[in-house]
Amino acid sequence: MALREQSYLILLALADGPLHGYGVIKAVQELSEERVRLGAGTLYGALDRLSGDGLVSVVKEEVVAGRHRRYYDLTGHGRTVLAEETSRLTRLAATARNRLSLQPGWGTR
């Protein structure tokens, strides 16, 4: 199951454990080296889709300073899909390196 980049980054953000929406937004920014910035609408649309696919679930809800927070976590299926997609991307990057005749560490100068 190939994932969109945003979905992949959201799942990867949750790999260390449950996060609420803002935590996911910040983790995705960090993981993408500030390249991907999710708005709330985009994030919650993606989380609803991932939840519908059985990849994430709500594991906790609370109210903090009058604001409702939902914490999301990977399901077992979500962790499997994340691992498979990571393997696929690793193979793709290796193929790209080979086709470009680049050696490991080629991007460091």
From TrEMBL:
Domain Transcription regulator PadR N-terminal residue range list = 10-84
Protein name as it appears in the record: PadR family transcriptional regulator
**PANTHER family, alphabetized:** PADR-FAMILY TRANSCRIPTIONAL REGULATOR (PTHR33169)
Source taxon at top rank: Bacteria
